[in-house]
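Example (one chain per record):
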Amino acid sequence: MRSLVHRASPVVLASCVRLAPLRAAAAVRPAVPVFKARSHSTATISPAALHAEKEGDKALSQKEGTAAVAQKEGKDVHVAEKALLQQADTGVGAQMVVPSVDALRAAGTIDVTIDGQSAEASISDSVSSPSINRPDKDWTLMHPIWKNEYVHRVTYTHLPPQDFVDRLALNTIRAIRFNFDWMSGYSFGKLTEKKALTRIVFLETVAGVPGSVAGTLRHLASLRRMKRDGGWINTLLAESENERMHLLTFLNVRSPGAFMRAMVFLTQGIFFNFFWVSYLIKPKFCHRLVGYLEEEAVVTYTKILKEIDGGELKAWKTTPAPEIAKKYWSLPEDATLADVVIHVRADEAHHRDVNHTLAELKDGDLNPFRDGHA
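Predicted structure:
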C-alpha cells in the first residue's frame, strides 16, 4: 500500500452542532395556567393556612407578571428580527440589511462549532461572514500528500482488457491520444517547453471533467433514491479538483492564447456530454476509460521527466515551483518545477489505480479508498 498522508479537508461540515443558549428575554415561554385544587369540604380553614394560601397566590401573581414582561420583551426581539429579515429580503435601501448575530441568537437560532472552534470567534456583525477564518486561505478538498520514497518509484503499469467494455474503453483512449498527438505536434520533432506546456494545460482541462460528472450523477442518484452513496462521491470530486489544481499550477508557467482557449471550450463541451451519457449507461466503461487515460498520463509525465533530466526541459530543474504548488503538495521552499511534475505524475498514477478499482466494483459496493465519505 502506498505510503501517503491524507490532509484533512479544508471544507469541513460542522463537526458539532449545538443549540445556542436562548437569552432570558426570548427563552421564557408563555405562562401556563396553574390550577389549584380547592377543598369543597365544610371543615374550617385555620388562619395560618389561609395566610399561606394568600401568600402563594401573591407569589404566583408576581411570577406570572414577570413572565408576561419577559414574554413581551421576547416578542419585541422577534418583531425586530422579522423586520430585519423582511428588509433584507426586499432589498430596501442601497445596501442589503443582514440581521446581526445577536438578534438571531436572541431569537433562538443554532450556533455552530467547527473542529472545536466556535463560530463566534470569527463572525463579527454579519451571519454571511465565514464561520472559520483559515489563515492559509486554502479551501481544497482532501488529497494525498506524497512522500519522496513513493513519488520516485512511480512507474507505468497497464491493465489488460478483460471483456468487450474494457477493450472499447482502451481503444477509445488510444484513438483520442493518437489524434491529439498528431494535431498538437507532440508526435513530431523534439519535445520543447512550449509543446510540453501546451499538452499539459490542454489535457488537464479534459482530465478534470470525469470526476465532476461522475460525482454529480452519483450525488443526484443518492438524492433521488434517498440512500447513501457508499463513499464514492467525495473521492470522485476530490479527483476532479486534483486535476484542476494541476491546471492552475501550470497556468502559472504558461497562459494559453485565444485559439487554445477556443479549442478547450469546444473539447470540454463534447467530452462532457459524451461522459455524462456514457456514465448513465455504463459506469464501468467510464471508470475503465479514466483508468486507461491516466495510464497515458503517467507515460506523458514520465517522458517529460526524462526530458528534464537530460533533454529540452533541463531548465525545469532550476525553475522555482509556483506558490500554489508548494502549498497544495506541501513542497519545500526550494522546490522546482521538476518536483511539481514528479508529484503530478504520482497523482495521475493514483487516479489510474482508483478508477481501475472502481470499474471492478459492483453497484452498491463501498468505496475502498480512505478519502471516501458516505
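Caption: The first strand starts at residue 4 and ends at 6.
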